[in-house]
Every structure is written in structure tokens, then in C-alpha cells.
């Protein structure tokens, strides 16, 4: 149970949070037309006659959008309704050409489901928590008003008009900003794994309406407000905290919270009133007469389920139980789908290059990726998507370490050269003369010389000062310019010092 409380002048208050997340469906076209949905296109360049609500135009459902919503529902183990219906939500706004939005209120495509947020002691989430999801319904987006293009007029861009959205409605089960942030992060993670939404919140393809109310701990729910179109996890958490504090101050001052729609100002870190919150009857919902109900058969549902990938929780468990990775490494590797895919490709290529089972090279690959490679990319201001090194190229480097051709320290130098030049690891090793020296005779000769020069330290070592062993290793590596095989050095040094 969350211990998060708002400390008011008259005592403690509990915050109650629900999120309505709008996720733009990844598809080949809009929900009811064939128009493109690419981000950043010229205004009004992706608008069909249907999107512009020209007379006589009839909507036809894009079944790929339906398929993606069903797959999302299956990923959160929700009920899939074989029979669903589209409704008209009637309201006037300049960016809504039809004068209504086609949505689903009474009979949504996806029913009840849930997702589990992980424990995070630092964030105040002491144990895993199940957050209920009420439904996922499919609806079309509105267009966009642009107020900064002309001194006296507002322009309308209808590129987003008709774009398919999944509205994912949670239960009011969250009790802290951290829980709301964790829920949104987990939901984003799942839709990105499924491929039903790209999750790019900065581009508006995923945004949240944040419902907040306050109450005395254990009391009935209070009156909620809805803060619209919040476009980052950090801002969602900030909205919860600032809006809850505003409501507590208002109630304790003798006022009443009004059910309304609000907007968040990140510069001032505060919400402000936008309009009174409408109820369903205000929108005059009724079944869309131009659209038949959606009826899904078993074959369609089976295909949707069969197309689901391994989801993050299952992948993390496999990394720990099957590959022997630590909980931490498995979590980091599976948090982002692009990282997980890159690691999977690296793991397969590394196992192939070294002719070993994946379980035998998983720790080497994971540790190298999360420490050496990510560190080198960060220094250059790059990430996996802009890396000049492919998983196969990285596997070649790891194989050179695995077979003793180069040492771990030399591998760091090779990695820097790979990032700088784009050349393959083997090419760099040959060109730079970086192959590791495993000639026992040559190493023995260097060790003998070092022990002769440092006879006093040899005596100290043999007298029990075993920490000096590292000194002898370092001196040998230095004498051989870092190219000697460390394992052979250790073996030969122990033998020589024991004599």
C-alpha cells in the first residue's frame, strides 16, 4: 500500500488517480480512410474526403487498427468483445469537421484487464501492484488548431483528423505520483513491444488525461478533475502532485472541488481551469448509423494472439531463469523494446561467433553492452539507433576477447576505433598490431627481469604481503605494452613467485 500523503493544515489527505491514455495506433492508414498518418507532414497534406467530412462520404473501418487494439487488449490479458459498436460523440469545435467524433462508449472493443507495476522502494512503491484497466475503446482523433501562424486568425490542420486512437482507461487504483508514472511507463513499454503504438509522447502519439481527486484516507472518493493531454511521464507525476495540493488547499479553505477539465502549465508547474466537465448526455451519444457493429470471429482472434511477441515480464523472467542474468541487468535490458531487440541480436551473433550456447555467452554480452558499449555511446551523444556498430560487429569484438586474440583492456581501445571509423574489429586489430601475446617464453623472460629488478618486493611478497601480486601483474603488462595474455601472466607469475 502506498504511504504517499498530502500534508494539509488539517491533517493528511490521500490522492486517488486514474489515467485515460490516448495511444495512436500504428497502422497503414487512418481509422476510417486510406490517408497516411506520418508525423511532421505539411499541414493538410494527409486529408481524404472522409477526413474532411465532405457530403456523402461514408466511413469504412480499417481492420488493421482494430487488429492492433485487440492485440493490445490481449497483452494486458483483457476481455476481448467479439461484438462492439461505434457511437457518435457530438460536439462542435473548429478542428472537428464532422461536428462529431466516432468513438465507442457503451460497447467497447476491449473490456476489463490489468497490468502490474513493479516494486520500487526508492519511489515509494513497496511491492508490486495490480492496476485495473476498465476498457480500451477505439476512436478517431480530431484535427489541430494553430494559433501562432497569423496575428488575427487561427489555422486548422486536419492531418490528425481521423487518425486511429486507442483510449486505454484505468481504474482509479493509483495512490501516488510514482504509481501513476510507473503505470504509464509500463503501459508505454507494452504497446511498444506489441507494436500497436510507437509511444512517442513528444510527438503526441501517446498522451494522458489525468484524473485526480483527494480524500481523507479510507473515505469515499472525492470530486475529480481531469487534466488533459499530458505528454510525458514526468509531467503526469507533476500534475498529480500539484493538482492534489491545489485541491487540498481549496477544501481546507472552505471551497469545493468542481468537476472540470484542466490544462497543465509545465513552466509554472500548475493546472488551470479549461472548461466544466461534460457528462455523457451532454455529448448526445448515439450509435453511428453509417457503421455496422464490429463482429470478430475466432480465426481473427487466434491470429491476433499468435502474432503477439514475448512481452517484457516474460522476457525478463527468461533472462534471469534461462540465461542466468542478474535481476538488474535483465530489467535494464527489457525496459525498452529497442534495447531488448539489440541484445537479442547480439546474443545470437555472439553465440554463433564463439560456437557456444546462448546461455554460456549471455553474461559476457549483457555486461559488455550495459557497461562498455552504452558508456562509449553516451560519450559520443549516440544511442543504439544511431550506433555505427551492428550487433554482428559487436559480436566479432567479443569473440576476439573470448578466444584470447585481444584482452579486455585492448577491446576498449578497439571499440573506440570502431565507433570512430566504422571499421570491423578484426580489421582494426590487424592494422594496429593489437593481438594479444600468448608466447609463454617471451612472458617468462619479462617476468624474470621484473622480479630481478624488484627483489625487495619479491621478498615482501614471499613474506606474506600478497597484495603485491597486483604490482607484478601491472609491471608485466606495462613492459609488454598491454598486449600480453593476462591469464597466462597470472599463471606464470604465481609459478615464478612461488619458487
UniProtKB/TrEMBL annotation:
Any one Pfam family match given in the protein's UniProt record, by short name: GatB_N
Subunit and partners: Heterotrimer of A, B and C subunits.
UniProt entry tagged with the keyword Ligase: yes
Similarity remark: Belongs to the GatB/GatE family. GatB subfamily.
InterPro entries (alphabetical):
Asn/Gln-tRNA_amidoTrfase_suB/E, Asn/Gln-tRNA_Trfase_suB/E_cat, Asn/Gln_amidotransferase, Asn/Gln_tRNA_amidoTrase-B-like, GatB, GatB_C_1, GatB_Yqey_C_2, Gln-tRNA_amidoTrfase_suB_CS
List its EC numbers: 6.3.5.-
Descriptive protein name: Aspartyl/glutamyl-tRNA(Asn/Gln) amidotransferase subunit B
Q: Has UniProt tagged this entry with the keyword Transferase?
A: yes
Output the SUPFAM superfamilies linked to this UniProt entry.
GatB/YqeY motif, Glutamine synthetase/guanido kinase
Q: Which HAMAP family match?
A: GatB (MF_00121)
Q: Which UniProt keywords apply?
A: ATP-binding, Ligase, Nucleotide-binding, Protein biosynthesis, Transferase
Gene that encodes the chain: gatB
Q: What does this protein do?
A: Allows the formation of correctly charged Asn-tRNA(Asn) or Gln-tRNA(Gln) through the transamidation of misacylated Asp-tRNA(Asn) or Glu-tRNA(Gln) in organisms which lack either or both of asparaginyl-tRNA or glutaminyl-tRNA synthetases. The reaction takes place in the presence of glutamine and ATP through an activated phospho-Asp-tRNA(Asn) or phospho-Glu-tRNA(Gln).
What's an example GO BP annotation here?
translation
Top-rank taxon, per record: Bacteria
Reactions catalysed, as given in the entry: L-glutamyl-tRNA(Gln) + L-glutamine + ATP + H2O = L-glutaminyl-tRNA(Gln) + L-glutamate + ADP + phosphate + H(+); L-aspartyl-tRNA(Asn) + L-glutamine + ATP + H2O = L-asparaginyl-tRNA(Asn) + L-glutamate + ADP + phosphate + 2 H(+)
Q: Name one GO molecular function term.
A: glutaminyl-tRNA synthase (glutamine-hydrolyzing) activity
Q: Where is the Asn/Gln amidotransferase domain?
A: 341-497
Amino acid at each position: 500500500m502506498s504511504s504517499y500523503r498530502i500534508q494539509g493544515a488539517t491533517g493528511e489527505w490521500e490522492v486517488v488517480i486514474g489515467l485515460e491514455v490516448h495511444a495512436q495506433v500504428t497502422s497503414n492508414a487512418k481509422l476510417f480512410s486510406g490517408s497516411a498518418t506520418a508525423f511532421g507532414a505539411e499541414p493538410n497534406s494527409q486529408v481524404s474526403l472522409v477526413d474532411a467530412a465532405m457530403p456523402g462520404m461514408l466511413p469504412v473501418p480499417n481492420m488493421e487498427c482494430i487488429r492492433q487494439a485487440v492485440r493490445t487488449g490481449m497483452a494486458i490479458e483483457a476481455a476481448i468483445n467479439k461484438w462492439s459498436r461505434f457511437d457518435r460523440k457530438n460536439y462542435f469545435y473548429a478542428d472537428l469537421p464532422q461536428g462529431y467524433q466516432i468513438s465507442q462508449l457503451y460497447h467497447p472493443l476491449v473490456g476489463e484487464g490489468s497490468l502490474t507495476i513493479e516494486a520500487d522502494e526508492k519511489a515509494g512503491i513497496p511491492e508490486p501492484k495490480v492496476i485495473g484497466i476498465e476498457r480500451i475503446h477505439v476512436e478517431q482523433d480530431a484535427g489541430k488548431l494553430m494559433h501562432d501562424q497569423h496575428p488575427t486568425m487561427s489555422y486548422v490542420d486536419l492531418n490528425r483528423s481521423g487518425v486511429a486512437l486507442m483510449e486505454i482507461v484505468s481504474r482509479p487504483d493509483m495512490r501516488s505520483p510514482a504509481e501513476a508514472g510507473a503505470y504509464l511507463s509500463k503501459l508505454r513499454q507494452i504497446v511498444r513491444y506489441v507494436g500497436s503504438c510507437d509511444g512517442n509522447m513528444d510527438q503526441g502519439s501517446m498522451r494522458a488525461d489525468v484524473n485526480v481527486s483527494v480524500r481523507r484516507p479510507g473515505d469515499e472518493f472525492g470530486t475529480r478533475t481531469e487534466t488533459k493531454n499530458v505528454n510525458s511521464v514526468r509531467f503526469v507525476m507533476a500534475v498529480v502532485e500539484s493538482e492534489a495540493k491545489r485541491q487540498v488547499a481549496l477544501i481546507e479553505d472552505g471551497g469545493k472541488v468542481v468537476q472540470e477539465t484542466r490544462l497543465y502549465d509545465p513552466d509554472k508547474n500548475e493546472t488551470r481551469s479549461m472548461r466544466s466537465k461534460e457528462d455523457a448526455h451532454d455529448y448526445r451519444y448515439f450509435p453511428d448509423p453509417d457503421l455496422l457493429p464490429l463482429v470478430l470471429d475466432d480465426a481473427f482472434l487466434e491470429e491476433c494472439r499468435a502474432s503477439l511477441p514475448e512481452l517484457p515480464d516474460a522476457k525478463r523472467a527468461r533472462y534471469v531463469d534461462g540465461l542466468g542474468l542478474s535481476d538488474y541487468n535483465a530489467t535494464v535490458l527489457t525496459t525498452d523494446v529497442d534495447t531488448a531487440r539489440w541484445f537479442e541480436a547480439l546474443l545470437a551473433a555472439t553465440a554463433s561467433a564463439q560456437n557456444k550456447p546462448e546461455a554460456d555467452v549471455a553474461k559476457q554480452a549483457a555486461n559488455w553492452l550495459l557497461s562498455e558499449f552504452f558508456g562509449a555511446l553516451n560519450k559520443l551523444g549516440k544511442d543504439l539507433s544511431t550506433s555505427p556498430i551492428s550487433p554482428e560487429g559487436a559480436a566479432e569484438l567479443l569473440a576476439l576477447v573470448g578466444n584470447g586474440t585481444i584482452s579486455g583492456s585492448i577491446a576498449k581501445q578497439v571499440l573506440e576505433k570502431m565507433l570512430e571509423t566504422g571499421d570491423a574489429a578484426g580489421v582494426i586489430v590487424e592494422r594496429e598490431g593489437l593481438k594479444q601475446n600468448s608466447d609463454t617464453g617471451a612472458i617468462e623472460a619479462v617476468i624474470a627481469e621484473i622480479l630481478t629488478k624488484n627483489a625487495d618486493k619479491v621478498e615482501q611478497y614471499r613474506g606474506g604481503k600478497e597484495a603485491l601480486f597486483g604490482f607484478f601483474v601491472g609491471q608485466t603488462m606495462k613492459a609488454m605494452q598491454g598486449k600480453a595474455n593476462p591469464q597466462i601472466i597470472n599463471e606464470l607469475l604465481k609459478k615464478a613467485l612461488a619458487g
